[in-house]
Structures are given as C-alpha cells and as structure tokens.
Design goal:
alpha/beta; Rossmann fold; 5-stranded parallel sheet; 5 strands
Amino acid sequence: MFKKVLIAIDEDSHAEAAVRYGGQLAHDLDGQVVVFHVVRPPPTYATMAGMYLPEGELRRAATEHGREVLRQAAEKLPEGVPSRLVVKYGEHSEWREIVQEAEREKVDVIVLGAHSQASFARPVLGSTAEKVSRHVKVPVLLVR
C-alpha cells in the first residue's frame, strides 16, 4: 500500500518524530523512504554580506548544511530501509517544494512534523503542513 514514503523534515523537534514514524512505516510495509529537506534562501541581510564572498558561496553553504541535516536524520531510520536523501534549495515556498517533490517521486504517502499553533485560524496544524495536506493527492501523516 505505502511502498514509497516521503519524509519532509526541517530543523525542529518534530522532524525527528517524522523520521521515526515514516521510517517505521516503510520498514513495516517493506517500502522505501525519500527524506526531503528544503533549504531556505538566506535572509536579505545575509545576502548583503554575501556580496563579499565568492559568487554562490551562501547557497553552497546553505545546501551543505541541508545535507548535514539529512545525514543526521538518516541515522534515525530503521536499519535495512532503503532511503534516498534529497535537499532542495527553495525556489518556492516550503509547502510547494514538498508537493512538487511528492509528485516527482510518485510517493504513496507524505510524513510531516506538525507544529501546534494556538490560534483560532489554525488550531492544530502549522501552515506548511496545512498547505501540503490541501494540495497533494496522496495521504499525509502528521506527527508530533
């Protein structure tokens, strides 16, 4: 049923839970995982400082940091689960990049960490998880 699992992570505490649940799901169903991380473009002030660095250095450093985030996440996957690590330098918003990656990879389910937000508009989901769940055609597993 769920043979290909996309685990989209960021750098918060919910990412570890997403890797744990998504990895176990793939393990139990003899599936595989794609662990996906979107690197955000640096803030404007960093871009200004980047003018004094070699061209592309900020992007290269941010992408390398994203690879390290993925390597650390991969260490938490159950043994024997086939996995690919994908880092994407965000050209669009995070939710859009996750949706596009899910379509590109033809995944069966997406696993995301859910940020609890105490507001009337979004009482349970963070905005990224909410938008992903609205725009994909596959099930989304939200974990905390």
